[in-house]
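LAB NOTEBOOK - FOLDING QUEUE
OPERATOR: T.R.
BATCH SIZE: 2
PURPOSE: Compare the predicted structure-token outputs for two unrelated chains run back to back under identical settings.
PRIORITY: normal
REVIEWER: second-year student, initials M.K.

ITEM 1
FIELD SEQUENCE / FIELD STRUCTURE:
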Amino acid sequence: MVATGFILGLLGSLHCVGMCGPIAFMLPVDRTNTYKKGAQIALYHVGRLLAYATIGLVFGLLGKSLYIFGMQQKLSVVIGVVMIVAILLPYKTFSKYNISKPIFRIISKVKTSLGKQFKKKSMDTFFTIGFLNGFLPCGLVYMAVFGAIAFGSAWQGSLYMVFFGLGTIPLMTTAIYVGKFLNTTIKQRIQKAIPVFVVVIGALFILRGLGLGIPYISPASNAGLVTNTMNCH
């Protein structure tokens, strides 16, 4: 299941280029030194991965608290349904209830900090830009966060988000090097594939929560085992 985070990031990285592309294009990399440029871009990605890992840790802990109350499997089903519904409902429906609005001030501060970092060219600047970039609002990241919650584990939630970030690296790196390189036809095909894959991930989370006894996909619930163990004591 963790691997789905990587595939989500890989397929959705075109969306990332569209949303975060301007930031990537504006990175103050040293274009006269290939090795230094590579190191700067690597630090940018490390910063993003750390931000995603932090987000996954926080929401993984949220999922863990629900797991303690025996709600993990129900949560997995609910999150799977939410992911599918989010794809099927028209975009205009969500634009009326923009979840970024309540934290607009925080996002504004992040953007201000990003602006200041672009004026610097020290090596740590690229790490900071990547880290701040990771906290900017993004629909695709929200989908990955749902997955992190469903794992009901801090480290698994963090790992899921790291895999998501790793999936975005190839296309984001290419975008930094060559800018707008994909033709319209390829972009349209990838954009069409993203909703399909999100629905597939949602279905996998639903199966996982149903506990049908399918190895690796829908493992049986441990509720009965826990109950029996308690009775023995």
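ITEM 2
FIELD SEQUENCE / FIELD STRUCTURE:
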Amino acid sequence: MQIPVGWLVDRFEVKWVFAIGFLIWSAATAFTGVVHTFVALLAIRVVLGVGESVAYPAYAKIFASHFVERQRGVANSVVGAGQRLGPAFGILFGGTLVARFGWRPFFIVLALVSLLWLSPWLQCMPRTPTCGVCT
């Protein structure tokens, strides 16, 4: 899905494409804790992957549009560090929480807490400057 999402971020405001993808991603995470059949679990995990597919195309667009060239390496490394630290902390803390409360509540709470990020994103993320090519 990254190719179609790349087309979307090139034609629409990346702020909104990323927000919609993140909403899909988070909702699918929450529904992971609710479904009860293998087929439903498989389907919702595919939907989660669709939501996640916004990440790299959106990051690239944001870096190119909002960071001067000399800042893009640091911005990329922060994202890369987050991609490594997130799963590390997730295993450390998530494993503890899953052992105490079960895996279903963990997925639901993780998704709902993640959605708290969406409002500040929409309020603080500036519009992407238009290049004239995409209009």
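REVIEWER COMMENT (ITEM 2): Helices lie at 2-11, 14-32, 38-52, 55-66, 72-101, 103-115, 118-124.
FOLLOW-UP: none requested
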